[in-house]
Specification:
It is found in: Secreted. Keywords: Glycoprotein, Secreted, Signal. Belongs to the GILT family. Helices cover about 50% and strands about 5% of the residues. Strand 1 and strand 2 form a beta hairpin. The longest helix has 19 residues. The protein is globular, with a radius of gyration of 15 Å. By secondary structure, the chain is mainly α. The protein has seven helices and two strands; from the N terminus they run E-E-H-H-H-H-H-H-H.
Length: about 160
């Protein structure tokens, strides 16, 4: 699974990334990058990121966001999906230069995978560092199911 990064402008000396949806999205991209690095297995990664994605959708629809008050990214809300001792590693990465460096690496990896403007809506999700518009749209529609299909994971969590 490749992390995806939306188009943005960056001031790399201060890690001031501007994404399409602001700081909330930037925080999410950074946390996902750290989680993908430190979670050792696909099923745990699937469950953790899916949990975060559900919370993101809920919080992005939160009324204050519409009035210019961005919500805080739910960094601690899905830690119960992780094995003991893993959450501190992910959070230390997220809160350090390592998280920003992973964010930057994923941005660079994402550049050749992004669709041409107007062809497919964001987010654009890629797997195995390959550009596949159909798979990308499937992942947007049902990330869990698509990730399971791509990785060969067979589990009841794939159909939830």
């Amino acid at each position: 699974m490749s992390n995806y990064i939306h188009l943005f402008e960056a001031n790399q000396t201060t890690y001031n990334f501007k994404t399409k949806r602001g700081q909330f999205e930037s925080d999410g991209n950074r946390l996902h990058s750290c989680a993908t690095k430190y979670i050792p297995d696909v099923l745990t990664t699937l469950n953790y990121i899916s949990c975060l994605e559900k919370l993101e959708k809920h919080q992005q629809g939160y009324a204050p966001f519409e009035f210019g008050i961005p919500p805080k990214y739910p960094i601690d809300k899905c830690k119960n999906k992780l094995p003991a001792g893993l959450y501190p590693k992910i959070i230390n990465c997220y809160r350090s230069d390592e998280g920003w460096e992973l964010y930057e690496e994923n941005k660079e990896k994402s550049k050749p995978l992004l669709p041409k403007a107007g062809t497919i809506p964001f987010p654009y999700v890629s797997f195995n560092d390959e550009h596949d518009d159909v798979l990308a749209q499937d992942a947007v529609d049902n990330f869990k199911s698509t990730l399971c299909k791509v990785t060969g994971v067979v589990d009841k969590a794939c159909s939830l």
